[in-house]
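Could someone model cytidine-5'-monophosphate with this protein?
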Amino acid sequence: MKNDVIIACDFSSARETFAFLDLFASESRKPFLKIGMELYYAEGPEMVRQLKRRGHPIFLDLKLHDIPNTVRRTMRVLSNLDIDMTNVHAAGTVEMMRAAREGLTRPDGTRPLLIAVTQLTSTSEERMQQELLIDASIDEAIAHYARNAREAGLDGVVCSPLEASLVKAACGPEFLAVTPGIRFADAASDDQVRITTPARAREIGSDFIVVGRPITAAADPLGAWHRCLAEFCPETLKNA
Ligand code: C5P
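Reply:
Sure, complex below.
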């Protein structure tokens, strides 16, 4: 499993997405892209197919959370899209996560990486305890949900980079930590709270970083992507 930078394509149309990706047209290495609910609900599966045809690895970030049967059947449909990574909410239970893995597994036994959202980074410990009635610290809840995901046979979790070491301690070094909340040392934090730099994310155990606005809203998005690669996974640049 190679470390990589995943660009969050938080756009609301194919037109906007392709205008952004035109900036990367001269690159032989195609950036790993995250398609979230906004773009997927706007443009549908054809968007995924087109980006795959252009050679981009895809993380389809739809965060499924439903009864196990529905999740299994939905994952079966998504497995036909030839994506590289997708996810569910760990709150859906171990049974639901197992169903997701079964649905995603193709007849030949291969499947995309499957990871779980533990607690959203927008959920504070106070709200989790008061509104969700989870009587634990947020770190305990994250470690517990990560162990549930591992028990269900998933490959890792989405978490804040500052939680990566907690997840590795609970589930082992091979269990993936996919981490948003990345900002350059000299930049604004926007609405993200628990943030760190690409270089520090690598040091503390992230396997993949998910980077949105520091690249998509940069004056020079291509330069910002290169900066992320140079900080987070310089070895991939040598092989480019
Ligand atoms: O622009 P920014 O770098 O903050 O984008 C981060 C991306 O990661 C967004 O697509 C956001 O939805 C996603 N994400 C997150 N925190 C989570 C899960 C996903 O920021 N806990």
